[in-house]
Amino acid sequence: MVVAKKLIVEQFIRATNEQDWERAKSLLHENVQRHSSTHGMEPVSNSEELIEFHKQEVLAFPDLKETVLFMVEEGDKVAARIHFRGTQLGHLGDFRPSGKVLDACFHCFFKVIDEKIAEIWVEYDQLNGLIQLGHYSLPPNKN
């Protein structure tokens, strides 16, 4: 029986929300790649690094929850718009805990091969996130 690629992605997001790291890892190829053009994002080149990335995210946002808004599957790819909500109670890179909530959407693209996630592309509005968390403010509009 072939499992829908969207279901594999949903299971991975659920396992991450539940911090079920063994389950999450079981849905990944050993050499999974994660890409992002977001400033400061290091590339991820295996399942151990990806799980560690998510563990660090949970340390920064202990109450984080990701909710899939919609997904589209075509061939070996799944595109998803995902809502993220979490309170920054831990360090986020060099940024100290703010106690503020990050409430934002992002886009993720997954390549699924042999019923495991092999590659991920993630893009989100980092500036909006830093503003919400109080780490950055825009200069006043002088119009």
UniProtKB/TrEMBL annotation:
Pfam family of the protein (one): SnoaL
Gene Ontology terms describing biological process: polyketide metabolic process
Protein name from the UniProt record: Ester cyclase
